[in-house]
Amino acid sequence: MPAQQDTSASAPSSLPEGARGSARPAPTHPRPPSAARPYVLEGVRVVLPTGVVDNGRLVVDGTRIAEHAPAGAPVLAAHGLWAVPGFVDLHNHGGGGASFTSGAVEDVLRGIHTHRLHGTTTLVASTVTGDMDGLAHRAGLLSELAEQGDIAGIHFEGPFISPCRKGAHSEELLRDPDPAEVRKLIDAARGRASMVTLATELPGGLDSVRLLAEHGVLAAIGHTDATYEQTVQAIEAGATVATHLFNAMPPLGHRDPGPIAALLEDERITVELINDGTHLHPAALQLAFRHAGAERVAFITDAMDAAGFGDGRYMLGPLEVEVADGVARLVEGGSIAGSTLTQDRAFERAVTVDRLPVESVVAALSANPARLLGLYDRIGSLEPGKDADVVLLDADFTVRGVLRKGTWVVDPFAGRADGR
């Protein structure tokens, strides 16, 4: 929990403020009738895998997207709004003043809900470096939330990372990736471990990657001091993800290209990018898109407690963090300590600042991470039969509506007597 934060204040009443990362989330307006009978969202700009459909229609039937609406189905006018798939965040440490590493169940749920208000309908909860027994205990708590469908899985970021590239992780708690200890965390997660970030050049690194691949857990290369050649070896062993590419790894060099070149050039790797304007220069983001292609980029938040909550002092694992002007840094040493990013801001920046096509941004925020998690048959695109996870955005790419499994988390029609 953050220090010196007042959680007693009431939530603001306007969606735009809540959708822009205010100190408190905006209220939600569930609409029970939406789950009771099919209805049509009319006049939306629907982003499909095949392209954008202007003045389109989206049919919601219970918890799913349907191909056709029955005669007499209610029609909700949403003219001019973009309809995109719910965002999928592979790497998220908390939000709304709550930490996924240390908070109680109600705190974790508050953090999840904060990100849902900003369009993230599927979230993998990430932990930070801690002692092994504490992480195993945490995995048990988070696995229960995964079993309930609140999160899509667990990502262990640390303790198996390089002290040379530790970032906002406690050096005293770091350790080499012993396969037996990696297996301990997998077992503690009870089948809900989605990903483990490793410095694969450390002793036991390659064997741990092979272990993760055998158990269907994503092996992510990150917080690493690996050479180009060592990174290629890890990819051959089964690694498939680059944890926040460019950050916490050696820079690209013309004689010593390091891990960045190996991760960008291999088609088996999905590269995470934090598009908050702090972690990456726009040219670095463009470099990743050009070399990996839009189909291999996954936007993540790497969010910590302050996301959607505000500036102040927080704890990230055992380390104290100062958040000022929305940027999180360790009090001791000043290293960047995660982000305060929400995925709607990543979307807006990608389109308005980075000038990426909307279809590419949707792929990076929804389709690509859904495929990586093995969930693309259920989420990641607005196709009939998939979950009704929908984000409605206005012309400025501000969130106006969030639908998760057919229930409005943020209701764009609240207060309109005719529902239109």
Automatic annotation (TrEMBL):
<feature type="region of interest" description="Disordered">
    <location>
        <begin position="1"/>
        <end position="37"/>
    </location>
</feature>
<dbReference type="InterPro" id="IPR011059">
    <property type="entry name" value="Metal-dep_hydrolase_composite"/>
</dbReference>
<keyword id="KW-0119">Carbohydrate metabolism</keyword>
<keyword id="KW-0479">Metal-binding</keyword>
<keyword id="KW-0378">Hydrolase</keyword>
<dbReference type="InterPro" id="IPR003764">
    <property type="entry name" value="GlcNAc_6-P_deAcase"/>
</dbReference>
<protein>
    <submittedName>
        <fullName>N-acetylglucosamine-6-phosphate deacetylase</fullName>
        <ecNumber>3.5.1.25</ecNumber>
    </submittedName>
</protein>
<dbReference type="GO" id="GO:0008448">
    <property type="term" value="F:N-acetylglucosamine-6-phosphate deacetylase activity"/>
</dbReference>
<comment type="similarity">
    <text>Belongs to the metallo-dependent hydrolases superfamily. NagA family.</text>
</comment>
<dbReference type="InterPro" id="IPR032466">
    <property type="entry name" value="Metal_Hydrolase"/>
</dbReference>
<dbReference type="Pfam" id="PF01979">
    <property type="entry name" value="Amidohydro_1"/>
</dbReference>
<feature type="compositionally biased region" description="Polar residues">
    <location>
        <begin position="1"/>
        <end position="13"/>
    </location>
</feature>
<feature type="domain" description="Amidohydrolase-related">
    <location>
        <begin position="83"/>
        <end position="409"/>
    </location>
</feature>
<dbReference type="InterPro" id="IPR006680">
    <property type="entry name" value="Amidohydro-rel"/>
</dbReference>
